[in-house]
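User: I'm new to structure prediction. If I give you an amino acid sequence, what do you actually give back? Let's try with this one:
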Amino acid sequence: MIVVIMGPAGSGKTAIGTALAQALGWSFSDADQFHSASNISKMETGIPLTDEDRRPWLESMHQAMSEASIAGKDAVFACSALRRSYRDILIGELSDVHFVYLKASPELLAKRLSERQGHFMKPGMLTSQLQALEEPSESEALIVDAALSIAEIVQLIRTSLNT
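Assistant: Good question. You get back a string of structure tokens that encode the predicted 3D arrangement of the chain. For your 163 residues, that looks like this:
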């Protein structure tokens, strides 16, 4: 099984993904490790990524998800996956991908981003992420309140996925 923790910057994807993977004994990969140097450079200077910028990044993540699936390994990935088309690229031909959408208010996201240190994703870019966001339906993803504690969210995910 592949679980993708998704949502805008500041929703808690990395914290939840790490905690879920640790609880399950699965591997964890963060989308940030799949970005090209040019994408990181753009974000560091506050320039939002375009769909053209994102495609190779999403394809690289899909490749890692495919490799885990082919090897029979369960894995957790964290990725913003803001648009349905991005989620389609991530899924590709895979049949056992489950999305968990960390839904948060713009105020909570802005607060978290303003408190974050040393990350290339700048708080000023939140607006572009929220504009790009196509929230998944309940049939596409488990929708979880990102304001809950990490432990509560991990338990909700585990209960929903029977893990």
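You can read the tokens as a compact description of the fold. Here is one thing that stands out. The domain at 2-158 is CATH 3.40.50.300 (Rossmann fold).
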